[in-house]
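Hi everyone,

Forwarding the result from last night's run.
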Amino acid sequence: MRNFFTIAAHSLRANLRHRQGMIAIAVLLLGIVPVFFAMKGMLAELLAKGPWDIVAPWVVNTLGLSGYLVALLCVVFLGVMLGVGTLTQEKAKGALEALLATPLGPWALWWGKVAGCFLPAFAAGMVVSFGVLWALNAAAVVPVLGNPLFPGPVVATVGVGVPFLGLGIAALVNLIGLLVANPNIASLSVVVIVLAVSNVLPRLGLEFAEWSFAWVNAGTGLFILATSLLFAWRLLTKERIVLSAKRL
């Protein structure tokens, strides 16, 4: 357990200092601004269309879409970007081989890497996602209704569904990064998976403000995590990690 915390702390520092991590954070912040103003305009337009009883479903669904998009950007995409660059650098410098020459096991290394990219993405995601929901309420909802809206399903999607999805993706990204020669190239396949998931889930006929949407996201993340664990059980060894670094 001590080895896990050591690797997690080291990975966290390295991810936050790495140039790719800084670029990812900057791109993330720039991407959230247009999302906020687009959703603010949409909410204002919906609230002006008629009485609350009529527009309520659309307003709540728009809040759900806003929270989902921002959480997806922060927790999932930021987690992927943070987990890729440092692995490539550590393989090129031989740092992973040095670590594996110690009593450190491959599973402790894997989960330490997962924690090092998922935890900052999760923390940023919760702060930014709920901050955007609060700002949308303050700017568009409260002036009309007199009170903020934080629907339970939206809170569950942002606080539970997307984080489980992000954890599953982070586990898969780091597993691939440890086993293949070039984590940057391998991560492209994971990005494709993320894009597919983020596009398929909203098209299942579910509303963004439904409980089922939160649980489908959480279930998808758990499925990806279980699949990663299965592949890790079969493939994750010190020898494979060292060989992948030598092929870089």
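The chain has one domain: 2-246.

Cheers,
N.
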